[in-house]
Amino acid sequence: MTFLQRAPQAKQSTPSVTSSSDPPANAPATAAPGQVPLTRAGAAWMGVGAAALVAIMLIIFLVQNTHQVSVNFLWMTTSTSLALMLLIAAVGAVLITVILGTTRMVQLRRIIRSRGSAR
C-alpha cells in the first residue's frame, strides 16, 4: 500500500495558541503590501541568472589560462592548455557527484517503497 492509498487518519484536537496576526499553517504565503511574492518561476530565473554569471566567469577563466602545460596520468603524457585540463577535471567532478547523488536517491526510494509495501 502506498502513501497515497492509505486512509487519512483522524485529527486529534489539541489546543493551540496562536496570535490573531499569525496566518494558519495551511494558508498560502502572501507578500507584504508593495512586495512581489516568491514564485517557482522567479526562483528559476534567479537560478538561470546565477548559472549565466558562473558561465561568464568560467569563460573568462578559460581565456586567461591558455598557456600549455604538461599533463602526466598513469602511463599517458600529453601537453595541452591549462584551461582545458581544469575544465575536464571540473566536468569529471560534476559527473562523479551526479552519479553518487543519483545512486543515493534511488537507494532511498527503494527503501521507501519496500517499507510502504510491507504494511
Q: What is this entry, summarized?
A:
It is built from 2 helices and 2 strands.
Write the topology of this structure.
Layout: H1 40-64, E1 68-73, E2 76-81, H2 82-118
Antiparallel strand pairs: 1-2
Can you tell me the overall shape? flat
Could you give the order of strands across the largest sheet? 1-2
Spatial separation of the terminal alpha carbons: 7 Å
Mean pLDDT: 78
Number of DSSP E strands: 2
Count of helical stretches: 2
Task: Flag low-confidence runs.
Answer: none
Structural class: mainly alpha
Strand content: 5-15%
Query: Gyration radius, to the nearest Å?
Result: 26 Å
Helix % is 40-55%
Helix and strand run: HEEH
The major pleated sheet works out as:
2 strands, antiparallel
What can you tell me about this protein's structure?
With 119 residues, the protein is mainly α. It has a domain of 79 residues. 52% of the residues lie in helices and 10% in strands. It is built from two helices and two strands. It has a two-stranded antiparallel sheet with strand order 1-2. Helix 1 packs antiparallel against helix 2. The mean pLDDT is 78.
Key traits:
119 residues, mainly alpha, single chain, 2 helices
